[in-house]
Amino acid sequence: MNRPMSPAAAAAILIGLMLPGAAAAHIVKGEAVGFFSGFLHPISGWDHIIAMVAVGIWGAQLGRPAIWVLPVTFPLIMAFGGFLGLIGLNLPGSEIAIALSGLCLGAAVAFEWRPPLFAAAVLVGLFGLFHGYAHGHELPPGQNALLYSLGFVLATGLLHATGISIGLVHRWKPGQLALRAAGVAISCGGAFFLWTAVA
User: Distance (Å, rounded) from C-alpha 163 to C-alpha 58?
Assistant: First the structure.
């Protein structure tokens, strides 16, 4: 003899049938993909990685307030550069500027260059503009531009945070030497990317 279904069981089945449809109703095609595409873009190329990590290391070498001014300036200006790329504005020489960013920022770390904070922020912001332009210019078709932009800004912030974490060894003499060696390596990487960009 079949027992009638209890109200609780019926409610559970009904809710279970409704959940997939409710969840799908909140997913707009391209949104999640757009965010992850943007997030992966800065970490998919060593030319971006070395420059963004170098910003964090250099800020840590310079100490306060540069340790937070530089990693904030870069993504702010980068977001504006991303907007320029998204609207299709032509910014010539972006690949060369990105390669130069690795070369110059690596040299700043290697020599532990201590310019006025404003000059350091302008330099970092200038490079951030070109990195952002490259990200925005390469927005995949059909993806959400805002979420794509949020993705690459977040990834950039994490790369800066990685550089800051590495740069904290600056408080010890062996750490200072290690950071300078890392700066040389970054600068060499930038020189390689510059060579490939102009070749």
Answer: 8
User: CA of 116: how far to CAs of 66, 70, 97, 121, 185, in Å?
Assistant: 10, 12, 22, 9, 25
pTM above threshold 0.70: yes
Q: List helix spans (H) across 26-93.
A: 31-43, 46-62, 66-86
Instruction: Sketch the domain layout of the chain as residue ranges.
Output: 29-198
pLDDT tens figures, 131-171:
999 988 888 877 888 898 899 999 999 999 999 999 999 99
Q: Which amino acid is at 115?
A: P
Using alpha carbons only, give the angle 36, 153, 106 rounded to the nearest 5 degrees: 115
Helices 145-167 and 31-43 pack at an angle, to 10 degrees, of 30
Rounded Cα gap, residues 148 and 39, in angstroms: 7
